[in-house]
Amino acid sequence: MSRDKKQKYLLYFVLMIVLVAGASFQHFVSNAKVDKCLDAGYEYDFQNKICQGNLED
Predict the structure, then answer these.
(1) CA 14, 19, 24: angle at the middle one, nearest 5?
(2) Distance of CA 37 to the CA centre of its chain
(3) Per residue in 1-51, pLDDT tens?
(4) Alpha helices in the chain (DSSP H)
(5) Which of 6, 22, 26, 36 is 20 to 30 A from 46, alpha carbon to alpha carbon?
């Protein structure tokens, strides 16, 4: 396998890792928002993606 081909595959691999990590991080942040709302004793409206209550910050 040529050096250029190896570098191309490495670049694709790194980009794929970055995409997966970004999607995982977004999912984590979304779940943290819901958990924060529910832990405070409020209800989370999944349809409108808002916390039903007086949650500060």
Answers:
(1) 125
(2) 17
(3) 788 899 999 999 999 999 999 989 988 888 898 999 999 899 999 999 899
(4) 3-39
(5) 22
DSSP character at residue 56 = -
* Cα gap 26→16, rounded to integer Å: 16
Whole-model pTM: value is 0.56
Q: Return d(Cα 33, Cα 29) in angstroms, integer.
A: 6
Whole-angstrom Cα distance, residue 56 to residue 5?
52
The pLDDT of residue 57 is above 60: no
